[in-house]
Fold this sequence. Notes:
Layout: H1 9-36, H2 53-60, H3 62-95, H4 101-113, H5 116-138, H6 146-170, H7 175-182, H8 187-216, H9 219-224, H10 232-242, H11 246-275
Amino acid sequence: xxxxxxxxxxxxxxxxxxxxxxxxxxxxxxxxxxxxxxxxxxxxxxxxxxxxxxxxxxxxxxxxxxxxxxxxxxxxxxxxxxxxxxxxxxxxxxxxxxxxxxxxxxxxxxxxxxxxxxxxxxxxxxxxxxxxxxxxxxxxxxxxxxxxxxxxxxxxxxxxxxxxxxxxxxxxxxxxxxxxxxxxxxxxxxxxxxxxxxxxxxxxxxxxxxxxxxxxxxxxxxxxxxxxxxxxxxxxxxxxxxxxxxxxxxxxxxxxxxxxxxxxxxxxxxxxxxxx
Length: 276
């Protein structure tokens, strides 16, 4: 029977130092971002005293508030649809056997593998040709906007949700599902009362990732966006072209807080589920 060997004093100290260096490497840039978002100097790298003017400028800007509203609306719709389709695809791949399963599995991983620029160009060409076809056949003069962005985000988020839910399904014990079916439960009842409660953490993780990726996407959104549907990341990218000011820092901090809020809500939901 093997026993764990305690590290020597110098090795233990080296591990502690390494751990702190990793933490500093990851979180020091975030701390600097938050700090300089309150700087009164227009130069993002120079501290000019404490101020909330940059946050005030953000909330006073109708363009910034509109971009934030667009991002939230798109992210909510994308998350709901991506979770439904991603969970269904994960169940199909993990629980059923059908013709073309390997091809479908390979295609599902493509959005994760291919570069964002490549996918953005593909989606741009698709919407251009598809809208022209609808216009020619039905006279529908569709333009890029909410639905082009939403469909594009769904296209790559389904893969991420499916991977997370599938990982949860693969670690489940199928005996409970088989027992439910043996006790005359229908497939739907077995899923609802046995499978679904066990994969809720995976679904929640997939939903959190889908919303975060949708809120954060710049490259694909910039290719498929239309007039009046500028999202917050694209808006920030446009500000960088004009000149970097602490306003960008303040917007980044707001996006960071939104992401942290999603994580906290996910943790509370998981704790409530376990408590219930």
